[in-house]
Design brief:
134 residues, single chain, elongated, alpha+beta, two-stranded antiparallel sheet, 37% helix
């Protein structure tokens, strides 16, 4: 039986999140929603989010026949694009810890730019559907 060398997989999510905080201009203006763990997998990467209720006003004292329904809506939030920055290190590169740090920063910058661009495009396309409370 042949010997297999161990392979290490390293997730650098902490470095990516730090980079997101400093780079994303659009994301800084967005509200974030964290789906409870496991729900997205069970729901096919889609969750229905409540939109604030919409009420209308009626003028006058006699409102007979003017009572209407309150609009209550839900909109789907879908995880459709999963982006990764895969890379590998050889034995020579493993000797230099700053190389891993620079590569992690580069990957975080690329993912941050992708998220910022995707959010800006979404706002551009569906900006009139955005609900904001002040």
């Amino acid at each position: 039986m042949a010997n297999k060398l161990n392979k290490d997989e390293v997730s650098l999510i902490e470095e990516v999140v730090k980079q997101f905080d400093s780079d994303n201009t659009v994301a800084k203006q967005a509200d974030f929603f964290t789906q409870p763990e496991g729900n997205m997998q069970r729901q096919g990467d889609q969750v229905w989010r409540d939109v604030p209720m919409i009420s209308t006003t009626v003028s006058g004292l006699d409102i007979t026949g003017k009572i209407g329904d309150i609009g209550e809506f839900q909109v789907p939030a879908t995880l459709s694009n999963i982006e990764n920055v895969p890379w590998s290190l050889n034995a020579l590169e493993l000797r230099d810890p700053s190389y891993r740090e620079r590569k992690a920063k580069s990957g975080a910058q690329a993912l941050s730019a992708y998220v910022n661009r995707a959010m800006a495009n979404k706002v551009n396309i569906e900006g009139s559907l955005t609900v904001a409370q002040s």
